């Protein structure tokens, strides 16, 4: 069953541009991953430093592989420096 993922990230003050660049760097490698149906990044028009990803994966195990990929692991290492807070929704389309 396909898995829908919605992730929002809020940059720390002064880190908005840095987070934007790091997040943009996740697009190409993630879109090339097995099981990625779509992986889209959105930049808020109303709130500086707020980003949202909408994603669909063929299965949850393939998303789990994504979460353990080298580019996500590298992002996780930078997250504390760049991200004020984040939320993650995972679910199934009904």
UniProtKB/TrEMBL annotation:
One of its GO terms (molecular function) is monooxygenase activity. Gene3D superfamilies: 3.30.70.100. Keywords: Monooxygenase, Oxidoreductase. InterPro entries: ABM_dom, AI-2_Isomerase_LsrG, Dimeric_a/b-barrel. Residues 3-93 form the ABM domain. This is Antibiotic biosynthesis monooxygenase. It comes from Albidovulum sediminicola.
């Amino acid at each position: 069953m396909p898995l829908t993922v919605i992730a929002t990230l809020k940059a720390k003050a002064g880190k908005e541009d840095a987070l934007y660049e790091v997040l943009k760097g996740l697009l190409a490698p993630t879109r090339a991953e097995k099981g990625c149906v779509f992986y889209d990044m959105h930049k808020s028009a109303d709130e500086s430093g707020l980003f949202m990803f909408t994603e669909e994966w063929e299965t949850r195990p393939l998303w789990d592989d994504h979460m353990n990929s080298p580019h996500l692991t590298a992002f996780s290492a930078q997250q504390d420096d760049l991200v004020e807070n984040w939320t993650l929704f995972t679910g199934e389309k009904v």
